[in-house]
Amino acid sequence: MLEALLLAALAALSLLAVGHVLLHKRDPRAAFGWVVFCCVLPGLGPLGYWLVGINRIRTRARDWQAKLPFSGAAEAGFCSWSLRQGRSIAFGGEGYAALVSLADAVTRRPLLPGNRVVALHNGEQTFPAMLEAIASARDSVYLASYIFDTDDTGKAFVEALKQAADRGLDVRVLVDGLGERYSFPVARRLFKGSAVAIGRFLPPALSGRGLHFNLRNHRKLLIIDNWRGFTGGMNISDRHLAARPTRKQAIDVHFGIEGPVVGQMLEAFMEDWYFATGEVPPPISTPPPLPGGTAFCRGVSAGPNEDFEKLRWIILGAIGCARHRLRIMTPYFIPDRTLVAALNAAALRGVEVDILLPAKNNLPYVAWASRAYFSELLEHGCRIYYQPPPFVHSKLLLVDDQYALVGSANLDPRSLRLNFEFNLEVFDARLVADLTEHVDSACGVAREVTQEQVDGLPVVSRLRDNFAKLFSPYL
Question: So where does this one cross the membrane (predicted)?
Fold first, then answer.
């Protein structure tokens, strides 16, 4: 009798798990796998599904987002324009109207005119510009970084931020609770006793919000007086100094921004600050258009708290808009099936698709999984290049001559699904021309990967690569 009750209970648990799978799993392959697992192993299957099959990350993150006490910056009155109104906008005739409409639909922010965006290469250009901006600040300095090392660069920023706070400015520093541990001592200890306010995003804990290896704040933001900002892929670290080789050296591109989109950067920072500290932020205003600012920009906050996988959708929309050339530079490239299909479709319709990756990745297992996708991309006409050391950490997506998507996100599941990222959409021929020259220069010294090279890999290497590919959603 007891045995029969136990079997009935296990069967009921399996049916409940199967029902949950059928209702909530969108990918039919994942759904089928879980259904089989729960049915074949009545006790272990439902337990495994409960532990790792249910996406609690998205549920928790959306719950935190819903608790925000403010809606962010009000929509600027000067952005009530449309690409369909005429050809006066430089990119109006390039087929980007659909992309703008897509981003309008999935983001919380409008595309804003009147910005200036400048590319800054490596720490030698980026860090002096950021430090000068902090030194000249008159009202507020807000800095968010995934990694804030306590090396020479980190100490220079600590001193500059302390001095700004001593001048009576509102200075806030937000560091990721896991990323801060890349350095010892952690940077927040260097601010002890100062007037700088410190926030930690999801610090590891056994209670409260728990221990999360995902849900990391990967954003890099510096906002000065709500009119000048910096964002991109660089952390606060000596590793980004090209002239100072280190074991973890990473060359990169960052961006200096002036204009109304800085208000959207501030909005993203304040949302994270409220989540990390519980402090209700002050009202956020949108700066006016910059005289002579040629860039149309939109800030894209992406993360598991959002209603849409907006960054993935925008990337797919941008690829679909490409007519002549598509250039991608990223350190971590693990595309899902939709992204592979979009890249191949672009190549098949005659677009030159160039993908630049580091020849030696600092995460070997990511490089293995990435290489498992090469064959089908090369087969349909995409071109893949390996950039020589040092490790290239730059994250760029360029479409033809007018559009750039830049920021903190990589083209991998961790950035597109699991972490909090900030990117900028930029329509600006000047910036794209500058970045195009940079990418072309990188291609000139890179090694092109051929189909023959991929096919000629030893069987052991191909088995390893494809085994790593199995874990793509979690890398």
Answer: 29-52
What proportion of the chain, given as a percentage, has pLDDT over 90?
62
Contact indicator for 321, 95 with CB cutoff of 8 Å: yes
Q: What angle do CA 390, 253, 406 make, to 5 degrees?
A: 125
Pair 116, 230: CB distance under 8 Å: no
The segments of the chain whose pLDDT lies below 70 read: 1, 4, 8-10, 27, 29-30, 51-88, 90, 93, 205-214, 305-308
Question: Checking DSSP bridges between strand 253-258 and strand 383-387, what pairing results, if any?
Answer: unpaired
Is the preceding peptide bond at 185 cis, omega within 30 degrees of 0? Answer: yes
Residue (of 365, 361, 309, 372) closest to 335 by Cα position: 372
- 84 inside domain: no
Other Cβ atoms less than 10 A from the Cβ of 207: the count is 6
Whether residue 274 is found in the same domain as residue 141? yes
Residue 205: which domain range? 113-295
The answer to the question of residue 250 being in a domain is yes
Residue 80 placed within a domain: no
Domain C-terminal end among 241, 263, 295: 295
pLDDT in tens, 89-98: 767 767 788 8
Would residue 100 count as lying in a domain?
A: no
Both tokens assigned to 274: 């409220």
Cα–Cα distance measured from residue 45 to residue 41, given in angstroms and rounded to the nearest whole number: 5
Considering the domain architecture, whether residues 281 and 322 belong to the same structural domain is answered as no
Q: Closest Cα partner for 216 from 205, 227, 203?
A: 203
